[in-house]
Amino acid sequence: MPAPRLVIAPPPAPPPSPFTPTTPPLPFPAGPDRSPWARWRRHFERTAARPIPRTGDRVDLPPARAAALASSLARFQVGETGEGRIVGAVSRARMRGVDDDYRHALALFIAEEGRHARILAGIVRGLGGELLATSWTARLFARVRRLAGIRFKVLAMFAAEVVSIGFYAALAAALPAGGARVALEQIARDEQAHLRFHRDFFRIQAPRGWRRAAFLAGWIPLAHAAVLLVLWDHRRALRTLGIPTRPLATRLFAVIAEGAR
Ligand SMILES: [Fe+2]
Ligand SMILES: [Fe+2]
Asked: What's the CATH fold of domain 38-42+55-259?
């Protein structure tokens, strides 16, 4: 049977929402494709070349709002690290549609999550908050990632992208105009690209039939569980910042549906 061919469509226009960043995602760089993953490799090479945004300056906010934002972002900061082992696992595995371009893109994707951790650390410091060594949600996500094989690890990272997209955009809107807000909006745009990167992986791994059904049977409950868990974990910060939970949940559920397409 010939290998299914991946068609990477241009990103759909995001629905109007207060949680959607105002700047559109970066377009894919043009060029000849060696494989479906060549475009992703070039995308991550290009985003890796960006300078780290300036953060760490004091963010002017009322103390209660600054503390709520710092505690929320510190928990996300912990979650942005610690996924590196999957690069080695994928490099040793033989899987359909996985080639050197994918392996390279995956390593750059992991590095980009590390970049997010550095940027978030600067924002947390600017808010007067303290960084965390770990958090119970980060430990839980790490444990879930280790439950099964490589596909499940990617599925767990895929679910984390849904949460990141909605939360970073919502938290950025709670920041005053300035470097920290611009940096967080940039991270939210990166996460949208990450969602499409993982979605393309499952379009190749599970294009149709029982494979697709198995993917959806894992994706839908796992992503919903991740969203509900993080909404609950950050409920106090959301309340303090005046971010209504229901529209945020609606936006996150729409992102889950986008991931299933
Ligand atoms: Fe990230
Ligand atoms: Fe991400």
From this structure: Ferritin (1.20.1260)
DSSP string, the chain: -PPPPP--PPPPPPPP-TTS-SSPPPPPPP---SSTTHHHHHHHHHHHTSPPPP--SPP---HHHHHHHHHHHHHHHHHTS--THHHHHHHH---TT--HHHHHHHHHHHHHHHHHHHHHHHHHHHTT----S--HHHHHHHHHHTSS-HHHHHHHHHHHHHHHHHHHHHHHHTSPSSHHHHHHHHHHHHHHHHHHHHHHHHHHHS-SHHHHHHHHHHHHHHHHHHHHHHHHHTHHHHHHHT--HHHHHHHHHHHHHHHT-
> Which residues make up the environment of ion ligand 2, defined by Cβ < 5 Å?
161, 191, 194
Query: Structural domain boundaries of the chain?
Result: 38-42+55-259
The rounded Å distance from CA 95 to ligand 2 centre is: 22
Q: pLDDT, tens digit, for every residue of 83-136?
A: 667 777 778 878 888 899 999 999 999 999 999 999 999 999 999 999 988 888
Band (187; pLDDT cuts 50, 70, 90): very high
CA of 2 to the centre of ligand 1 (A): 34
Cα 50 to ligand 1 centre (Å): 15
pTM tops 0.90, yes or no? no
Span 174-185, average pLDDT: 92
